[in-house]
Amino acid sequence: MTKKKQIIGVIEKIIIAGSNGKKKEVFARIDTGADYSSIDKTIARKIGYSETINEFHDKLIKCGKKIFEMKRVDKEEYFSGIPFFKTCFKIKSVHGFSYRPVVNILFNIKGMEIKTKATIIDRSQLKYPVIIGRKDLSGFLVNIISEKM
């Protein structure tokens, strides 16, 4: 018997938790156009990823444009040792390409707990501090008409 899918809107209240066990309740945009979920660096800091953000940023600055020439395995080795760092993704957005650190997070949406990897980026100029990408949406149907909060 197949499990019934939860219907969610394009905006949902979620509870997000990170490395320090602290939880934060925020509104998230459900983004079926994004592969991965992404969290704002301010939220990421509050749930325990300050060192990850700082060390990734420092190493990225030191590396400079060489990052674009590095193979994936070389990037993994270069960034290894950063607390809670899992990998980095090259993400294309309307602003061009960026490299983002990836960390493990746990979020709860409509009573369903999702363990996943999320990128960290500055989303302070955007309306929602978190986007939930399609890789984390199995088990859900998205009602694109609804923009409830």
UniProtKB/TrEMBL annotation:
It comes from the Bacteria. Residues 9-137 form the Retropepsin-like aspartic endopeptidase domain. InterPro entries: Asp_endopeptidase, Peptidase_aspartic_dom_sf. This is Retropepsin-like aspartic endopeptidase domain-containing protein. It holds the Pfam family Zn_protease.
